[in-house]
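#help-structures
NK: newbie question, is this the right format to request a structure? protein is Imidazolonepropionase
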Amino acid sequence: MSSTVVTNIRTLVTNDPAQGDGGPLGVVEDAALVLDGERVAWTGRAADAPAADTAYDAAGRAVLPGFVDSHSHLLFGGDRTAEFNARMSGRPYTAGGIRTTVAATREASDDELGRNLARFLAEARRQGTTTMETKSGYGLTPEQESRALRVAAAHTDEVTYLGAHIVAPEYADDPAAYVGLVTGPMLDACAPYARWVDVFCEKGAFDGDQARAVLTAGTAKGLVPRVHANQLSQGPGVRLAVELGAASADHCTHLSDADVDALAQAESTVATLLPGCEFSTRAVYPDARRLLDAGVTVALSTDCNPGSSFTSSMPFCVAVAVREMGMTPDEAVWAATAGGARALRRTDVGRLAPGAYADLQLLDAPSHVHLAYRPGVPLTARVWHRGTPLAPLVP
Ligand code: NIG
Ligand code: FE
């Protein structure tokens, strides 16, 4: 195992409030950071940095934790270019296109699914993402859902069972039977590969009672709930997520005051906002300001999927959240790193403090604020995952 000291960091975001200026980002100016093997060994002022085996000169640029993207749907075949084109010509997003992806995914081989997933993970990594959750939901049979999760588990620890994405086409006339499949044989086949259970709680997908059945069955098998909640309309999803102690209520676009209160009082349910989705469906953005002012813990994530949000870019989501959702740059950067870690109940990622994984990114900019200030510019200069640098993008 060897150690590296990253020196000459203009702005270091640690997400450790005990460091730096005392704010939640724990910003240290003129900083250094020591990596030892897979972990962070030391952070602080450059002038106080201990010696290490090798040194890397950050040349006055910013270092922050790798992004933690806690919500994506990367196990799919085909794409939905035609649907996107139609939508940009005025047709609304209804989630009906999920069926198109289900048909294409069922046709794809395990190899194709794996190659597709690896490609998107690499794409995200080049944009600073070092932890990525992904989920099933485009197979909708026990065999298809479990093989998708098996493929996912070979690439990431953060795997979510979403058999309850929509009612499978074969069960269109008998949704109750489909819920029986999702909570029975499909769950048995999928649970060994997954950490989380999810449900799309929405009109036209699963109602509150069905969502409760899915989540409690998953919990009984050792999975932890997270919920697609209040994306297209108000409904019971958010309050159900809080009641069942879900790690996250995702989307949170259409919220009543009672939903906001429930999230504010939740012990450990994060509100995960997905700006790529509203951007790509020309929908109204969730009101992050309202949630933050109420004291809700907010995460940002891409929701990368071929229908509603085909972006793997966390910098893009940060910029949109700042411009369109009322977040400050500091709040958005926290939500895309520490917030994502909270949504995945992780303490070993999303922060740079001794003992955490050495998952970090160097920006070709002096501060993390440039992620929002310079939208669309590829600022990711270098990424370390578990202490190993990826090929440098900028020298
Ligand atoms: O999170 N809302 C449900 N699922 C996805 C969209 C899936 C699709 O359109 O293929 C979402 O936005
Ligand atoms: Fe989603």
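mod (FA): yep, format's fine, and the tokens are attached above. The domain at 68-343 is CATH 3.20.20.140 (TIM Barrel).
NK: thank you!
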